[in-house]
Structures are given as structure tokens and as C-alpha cells.
Amino acid sequence: MSSHCKFWLPKKKRFCANSPLSDSPFCGNHSQRPDAHWIPCPIDPSHSVLEGNLPSHLNRCPLKKQAQSLSRQPYYQRGINAGKEDMGEGEAGEETTATPKDSNFTSEMKRALVHAMPVSKFIGLIAKIKSAHASICTIIRDSYMVPQSCSIWTDREVDKKLPYKEKHVLQQASILGNLEEFGVLKEYCFTSDETNEKCHSNTESERDTDVSAVVEFGAGRGYLTQMLVDCYGISKVLLVERRSYKFKADRSLRQKERLIVERLRIDIEDLNLNDVESLQGLGYVAIGKHLCGPATDVTLRCCIHKQSYEWTASHPPRGAICYLRGLAIATCCHHLCQWKNYINKAYISDLGFTEEEFHAISWFTSWAVDADHGSEFVVTESSTGHEIIMSETMNEWQLDSASCEVSDIVRSMQPIHRAALGFMCKDIIDAGRLMWLKAQGLQSELVKYVPIDISPENRLLIAR
């Protein structure tokens, strides 16, 4: 019998190297068993386990100790930033009752909901989207900038061992450039070894009074923070990410003098930022590049709970609370947005949309990024292009409404028509977040921070 498993691994272009079972050509991971016997692990649903093996697996699941350790941390408070299903929100949108994490409305459920609509209702929904977008499209301006502060990255003068992809560098530079223009970050001087020390000594005290720390939400490998530290001389960073990544920027960051780096492996939904010891009493800037779907909403709650939570006798503050100086979040993956997490349900309701229609709107957003973004897609980035394309398309639907279903309409739509609708829906969702920030008393703006050919996910929320 062969000494290796016979399961072919396409990505590695070889067979599995594990030893096979005694009665099978495959190892235990790849042996052919009925799917019905496999169930998601209750500790970490990203992997499955045989139902009969579940009791023993729960005692040795790799994430069990991590979950237990996390639950003992002072900053862990399950669902504190989750929001809730109903509309019972306070004066500034503050929500105090957490919702279960497993109540997500999946993309498959959203698609089924849209396809089940009568054609007349579908056309009516598109008309409401078009009307709502016309009222808010003027607030989104182009703001693509690559500041001089980031020249060491844009000119490729950084460590050659650091990963470099131009489209990511340009996005990161524009995020930081918008923060600088908005008055949150100050340009850091890097001209020569002689002048650098002088610039550092002259600006250190002023910079510290403005920004004492930076928190990157959904940090991933942390290369947005890497550029921020390289170009703006920040002295303390906190990286928040629920997943584990290889090839992180942490190793390079920890080699820098006068820089304190801390990484928290936690879901933003469960993070009580005021109880992070290293941030207590400090002003900080919150950043995030492509915070997927509801991660943007829970991040906003995490940072702006009227600058503090409604403390109870069972959970008093452990020290001086931290306070937000500025914020820059590049939104992403709006099709994953959830009603229970969304930060401004009142805004959606005021526009005349129901919870069901919000799910449909979030599903439409995937159409903005599901095709090649060539020259014709530039049209969809202008409000005039939106209006013309959607008016022509709706006239066609009205003629066919008696002889087709919604699924037929969706299949027959041209990519540019789908993209136009998708961008309109993305703008509506992000505009609600902008209105919520303004309701908290923050100076805020929603901009297109890179051209669509660099990334169709090009909306940036900035605030101070």
C-alpha cells in the first residue's frame, strides 16, 4: 500500500503527504465520508468535524484556549458594538442591546428575497433607490491625493523586503493624504539624517498633543499602519484583527525605535476600546482600509459611543477613557451589510425603505464590483451617468413587466446597468454612515479617494 494519501492538492500541485488510513487510500482529512456526518465546529465554524468525534474535538480544538484567554481580557465584552434588530435607538443612534452573532442574512437569502419579489415591486424599489440617490449624490466628491509625506513609499525608497503593489500603495497614500488634508495628521519631515533629528525634536511635542496613538481596525497584515508609521512618525499603534495572518508588518514595525506596537486578535464587535490599557487616557486616530460590510458599522460604534459606554455597576470603567481625534475608513463589501449591525437604521427608514428592502439594496451593491471596470464603467461614477442609465433601463423593464419575472430581468441586465445600480446602493449605505457621524457632532465627509480603475471600492469616510 502507498505510504502517502492519494488526494490531489490542486494549489500545491502534488498529492497529500499524510499517511493513509489502513482501509483507505486517503488520510483521515480526505477520506470519503457522507457529508451528513460532518458538522461545523461550534468553537470555530470555519472548519468541520465528524459528528461522532465532536465531544473529543471540543477538548482539543486549537481555538478553544484562544477563546478562553480572550474571554478573560478586560477589553472583551461580547456583542458590545453589534447593534440590534429593532429601531429602538437613542438620540444619537446609540444601541445598547446586543444581538446574537449567528442571525446574519446571507447573500443567498438576499438573492432569494429579490427574486421572489413581484416585478412591479422590484421596479418600485429601483425607482426609490434612484430618487434617494439623487438627493445625496452631490455630497460625494473626488479626493484622490498622494501627499509628499508618502513619497518614500510612492518612490519605492522603502525596505525592499516589504511587499510592494502599486495599487495598494496608492490607496494607502490617498487615505493618509485625506487625513492630512483634513487636519488630523501632520506632515513628518524626512529629508536627511541631519535634518530628520531636528524635525523630530521640533514637531514631537506638537504631534503628541494631536495624535498619541493610531488604531487600525481590520488591520490584516498591517501595511496601512506600516506606511503611516514610516511617513508620519506615529509613536504608538494598535492593530485590531480577528484572523491570524502570515507575513505581517509587525516584525518590521517592532524594529523601529520609539514605536510601541500592540496587536489584538479579537472581533471588533466584541471590543471595548476604553478598557484597552495601553490606550487609556489617550487621543487616537482610527483607520481602516476596506473594512468589509458590517465591520465598518461596528467600528463606528466601537469608536463613537458618545465617547463612552453607558457604564453599569457590573462594568465600570477601569481607567481614563480614550478619545477619538480623527477617523478614516475605506468601506468595502457592502453586500455583506446586516440590518442588525447597520449604524443608521433611522436614515434608511426616513428614505422610505423597509428592512427587507435594505437587504435587497445591500445585495445590489455587489453588482458594482462584479465585472471588468473598463472605460465604459467610468460613466457609472458620475451622477449624470447613474440617472441616464437607470432611466433607460427602467423604461425597458416597464414594457416587459407583464411577461417576465425578476430573475429574468436580472439575467438580462447589461453589466453597466448592474454597475450603475450597485454604485447607487453603495452610496446610499455610506451616506447613512456619514449622516450618523455628523449627528455625533463630528466634522465628516464621504469622498472617492481613488479612481475606479485603481479600485471600485473607492469610498472613504473621514471625520475629526
The first-to-last residue Cα distance is 67 Å
Total tally of structural domains: 1
Helical residue percent band: 25-40%
| Overall pLDDT confidence | 81
Run of helices and strands: EEEEHHHHEHHHEHEHEEHEHHHHHEE
Principal-axis shape equals globular
Number of helices: 15
Overall SS class = alpha/beta
Sequence of strands across the biggest β-sheet? 5-11-12-10-9-6-7-8
Gyration radius (Cα, Å) is 25 Å
- Strand proportion, as a percent range, falls in 5-15%
Low-confidence stretches: 90-99, 189-209, 307-313
Main pleated sheet? 8 strands, mixed
Q: Would you report the number of β strands? A: 12
Folded structure, characterized:
The chain is of the alpha/beta class and 464 residues long. The protein has one domain. The protein is 37% helix and 12% strand. It has 15 helices and 12 strands. The chain has helices spanning 54-60, 62-71, 107-115, 119-136, 151-154, 166-181, 193-210, 223-232, 250-254, 294-303, 345-350, 355-364, 383-400, 406-412, 415-439; strands at residues 8-9, 14-15, 38-40, 48-50, 140-142, 213-217, 236-240, 260-264, 283-292, 323-332, 444-448, 459-463. The chain has an 8-stranded mixed sheet, with helices on both faces. Strands 1-2 form a two-stranded antiparallel ribbon. A two-stranded antiparallel ribbon has the order 3-4. Helix 13 (383-400) packs across helix 15 (415-439). The chain is globular, with a radius of gyration of 25 Å. The termini are far apart. Mean pLDDT is 81; it is low at 90-99, 189-209 and 307-313.
List the helices and strands and how they pair.
Elements lengths: L7 E2 L4 E2 L22 E3 L7 E3 L3 H7 L1 H10 L35 H9 L3 H18 L3 E3 L8 H4 L11 H16 L11 H18 L2 E5 L5 H10 L3 E5 L9 H5 L5 E5 L18 E10 L1 H10 L19 E10 L12 H6 L4 H10 L18 H18 L5 H7 L2 H25 L4 E5 L10 E5 L1
Helix pairs in contact: 3-12, 4-13, 4-15, 6-8, 12-15, 13-15
